[in-house]
Amino acid sequence: MDEQAEMPDIAVRSPSTEQEAVFRRLRSAIMTGNLAPETTLTIRGLADLMACSPTPVREAVRRLSTESAIEVLGNRRMRVPAMTLAKFEEIFSLRVTIESHAAVRVLPYVSDVIIEGLERIDTRMDEALVTDDQLGLTVLNHDFHRAVYMTNPHQAAMPMIESIWLQLGPFQRQILQSGLEFYVIDRHKEILRALRDRDPGALAVAIEADIRDGIYRSGRQYLLDRAKLSSPSQVPYGP
Amino acid sequence: MDEQAEMPDIAVRSPSTEQEAVFRRLRSAIMTGNLAPETTLTIRGLADLMACSPTPVREAVRRLSTESAIEVLGNRRMRVPAMTLAKFEEIFSLRVTIESHAAVRVLPYVSDVIIEGLERIDTRMDEALVTDDQLGLTVLNHDFHRAVYMTNPHQAAMPMIESIWLQLGPFQRQILQSGLEFYVIDRHKEILRALRDRDPGALAVAIEADIRDGIYRSGRQYLLDRAKLSSPSQVPYGP
DNA sequence: TTTTGTGACGTATGATCACAATTTGCCTAG
DNA sequence: CTAGGCAAATTGTGATCATACGTCACAAAA
């Protein structure tokens, strides 16, 4: 009867609610590695920290728990999940699979404007690289990949990709703190070339290389070392 | 208008929290197609329905919104998302990719006991097929696939796969209601054979066939028909 | 007849309260 | 000095209250 007038509300609604703000802050903190693995969280503590009542925090934390960004233990406690070697390998193989899939599906929508935007991000990454700005590098890398995948207007995999980034965030910090350097080899140029050429094969290869050359190598090394020297169940590290 | 089963999955175990129960019921209702697309939901309405205060409902609804199972509109309204042809294709190709990935990663952990358990589920599916029990068929199909993927103890893709099922649930009901029959061709036998043979190639093929022979065909047909009689040569979709 | 302003009503939201469960610290007994 | 248990503090959970915002209906003016 009246369902045809779809009325696309293009108006961008401000995420003005407190709960949304808390959610964003917490999520961003986890994804950029501001919270270490195995950090225990309390709703009241976070509420104090963010100067609001427990209610918005509670809901934000729940949302993050469904994304596997926060682990809710049976005994009513929650914490940032720990990382194991097996889980790490599993997550990275999944990441390669999903991101390659999302990337290839972008090709029909690639345009000069799109590529131009990506190049702009890549330029900023080069700047962050020379100033050794690790945080900026992480954020920009996410921005770059997100911009690629979101080029597909019907994109369905983005929430899952973000969920993976979220699960990797805390561990990334752990590696950095452990003193392990990881070399950032810029595969973005290859991604851009594959996009320009509309070459799905080359694109998948470039995406996989970019992911595997990132924290994957040093992360794997870190977990192997830890497994080796942890004959007694030792606390991984303490901030 | 919804709860017709007493949560068959989580029968007596874990009386846990009210919020968890509400979450499970809502989630199950959506996944099995008890809620039609574009159904608008109100927190208070659901609270009345489940005989509890708005608080647990609010949190459950938020969790579901992060899984794209419920769409939160800017104007403080929420509803079950609508389905479009483009979104449908996107979701299904993603589903094939992720489920194939998860299935292949199961092979190192396959054992006779595992296969036996899967055969048991498959037998029950055959029974549901002859009695034309659509709901049972849907639930058992999910159980089967879940059992396959969860064979990998370090499984990381399951939450994402469930999220996809969740997004497909409401639309599945829409197809059934429209009178379109969909033929269920039993590809589970082929999946089982590939598992027994530890054949990754055959397994991926079987998984893809199982998914594409399910509601995919009739769902696609339904959306094509709807698009045809809706607007002959208008702009396909808004952004 | 159409458009616009104003009011009432309903709803989400966040704070606060009361309660239950769990953890932590301390004290006592062995 | 260690193990066990009791008590207080801490924390999550659900209900309720106050408030802000959106929606709808009705009326008045163009």
From TrEMBL, chains A, B:
Domain (GntR C-terminal) ranges: 90-213
InterPro entries per UniProt: GntR_C (IPR011711), TF_FadR/GntR_C (IPR008920), Tscrpt_reg_HTH_GntR (IPR000524), WH-like_DNA-bd_sf (IPR036388), WH_DNA-bd_sf (IPR036390)
All copies of domain HTH gntR-type, residue ranges: 22-80
Organism in which the protein naturally occurs: Jannaschia rubra
Pfam families: FCD, GntR
GO molecular function: DNA binding; DNA-binding transcription factor activity
Transmembrane segments: none
Parts forming coiled coils: none
Protein name as annotated: HTH-type transcriptional regulator McbR
Keywords, in A-Z order: DNA-binding, Transcription, Transcription regulation
Gene3D superfamilies named among the record's database cross-references: GntR ligand-binding domain-like, Winged helix-like DNA-binding domain superfamily/Winged helix DNA-binding domain
Keyword Cell cycle (UniProt): no
Keyword Transcription regulation: yes
